[in-house]
Model the fold of this input.
Amino acid sequence: MRAAVITFPGSNCDTDLQWALQQICGIPADLIPASQDSLAGYDAVFLPGGFSYGDYLRSGAIARFSPIMGAVKQFAAAGGYVIGICNGFQILTEAGLLPGALQWNTSLHFICAPATLTVVNTATAFSNQYTENQAITLPIAHGEGNYYADPVTLADLEAHHQVVFRYRENPNGSLNDIAGITNRAGNVLGMMPHPERRVEALLGGTDGQGVFNSLAHTVKEAAVHVAG
Amino acid sequence: MYKAKIYVNYKPSVLDPKAEAIKTALTRMDHQNVQDVLYGKYFELTLDGTDEAAVRDQVESICDQLLANVNMETYRFDLEAV
Done:
């Protein structure tokens, strides 16, 4: 498996993500500038956290028009795995790859704190190494993480089990305590908490490894399936 | 040439924490009669063009694609020849 991590102007979690993938989980990962327009040769693409284009207009609104996003859309449409974390989640909603939007936290505070989540769906490409309803603690660091979708979209998300992570104590006003969702096809994940910041005991825990290991497991199984 | 004056606001169903904070401040300032605060964005675009209908379509597409997130916001605009 080989992963691409996109660096937008203003991304600040790209090298952390590369470290978590490569040094901790053994997944080769390349940093790809947002000015490029190809993702050939990759099994998964990560959109990292940060403040792409200064969060001008709305977070993720400008990044969505970067040259690389055309390639990300094609990659996702072809069934490739796309993971957006924090600002990456915001970009995916702006690009229409995930439903809903991320609004200002109800407190209006930028919240940087550990959050305890429940893994509510372990039947996804990104969560199969967790156990159902497992409690995991991951850091959150956002001002706009308050998930909003209209009632029809929200009901649709729940009906199709697209919610992967929920907050145990809602920090930001997200509807249905949503911390992470997939698209209907299940190959695109967006989450506000930062798994890449919880991959070593030194950083306070290893609960984040499950996201990367789940994906590695999924890609490996698919390869065995194709070969077999 | 046309000038478009564009107003972007949250949909009524979206609770806007910033507008709520402004309302709370107004209440604290003794403006007890302020019932509601709408906090939005205002843009002015100046566009070359002679065909008003075409410019109107273009502004609509600019709003849909970039200036508003139609998942949570609505927009309206006035277009005038300048």
Remarks:
- The mean pLDDT of chain A is 96.
- The CA atoms of residues 48 and 195 of chain A lie 11 Å apart.
